[in-house]
Amino acid sequence: MAMSERAQRMVDGGPDYYQESFLYKDIQSSIATELDNVDATNEEIRKQLRILTATWGLKYWEEKLKIPTNEADSYDIRRSRVLSKWRGFGQFSAALIESVAEAFSGGDVNVTVDIPKGSIIVKFVGKYGVPPNLDDLKAVIDNIVHAHLGVEYEFSFLTWDQTDALNLTWDQMDALNLTWDEFETYKP
Q1: What gap in Å lies between CA 110 and CA 123, rounded to an integer?
Q2: Cβ–Cβ contacts within 10 Å for residue 120, how many?
Q3: What CA–CA distance (Å, rounded) separates 46 from 31?
Q4: pLDDT value at residue 38
Q5: Chain centre distance of CA 32
Q6: In whole angstroms, what is the distance from residue 4 CA to residue 20 CA?
Q7: Burial of 14 by CB count in 10 Å (0-12 exposed, 13-18 middle, 19+ buried)?
Q8: Burial class for 16, CB neighbours closer than 10 Å (0-12, 13-18, 19+)
Q9: Helices (DSSP H) in the chain: which residue ranges?
Q10: CB 141 within 8 A of CB 110
Q11: Can you tell me the distance from the alpha carbon of 111 to that of 94, in angstroms, rounded to the nearest whole number?
Q12: Which of 123, 51, 57 is nearest to 88 (CA)?
């Protein structure tokens, strides 16, 4: 059986008279295996301490931030909820709403706050279409903004002018093999 690189370094670091001992090599190999397991466990735990890499640790983030856990949702959706709630701490501002909305959409967002009119407009400009977890985003934003302000959401879709600018024939568009909903959010 071949020794791992770590085990070989451990054997090489021992006294010369142990270099040919099978018992010594087996002991060092066993220790190296256990150290590799400890390293792997530590790395896995470090991943759970970061929102963007957490998997099984998301439930602890959700619990801490008082977010209902729905394990049927994808890790990406659950991470976006946690990240937006994490970013949502602090005083209300357009930058705060942008940061939260960008965590959900994965693209750029422009926020316009018009206090005299009592409205906030959240416009998704970085990605076409409606974010898949819009209801979650609305719930988080409702917890951030003042109760007297209304929030409107605007979404970007592929326009006819943009479609014309693609200079595609009907056959080329058909070859993209996109549904209408996919085509509306298509970015070349």
Answers
A1: 5
A2: 22
A3: 23
A4: 95
A5: 34
A6: 16
A7: middle
A8: exposed
A9: 5-12, 22-48, 58-64, 75-87, 94-105, 134-144, 160-165, 170-175, 180-184
A10: no
A11: 6
A12: 51
Strands 119-128 and 150-156: parallel
Amino acid at position 140, single letter: V
Dihedral over alpha carbons 153, 154, 155, 159 (to 10 degrees):
160
C-alpha closest to that of 112 among 127, 103, 124, 122:
122
- Cα end-to-end distance, the chain, whole Å: 52
Q: Say what the pLDDT of residue 91 is.
A: 64
Average pLDDT along the chain, 188 residues, taken 10 residues at a time: 87 88 92 94 92 93 88 90 75 82 86 84 88 85 79 86 83 84 75
Q: What residue type is 2 in one-letter code?
A: A
The token duo for 26 is 């087996």
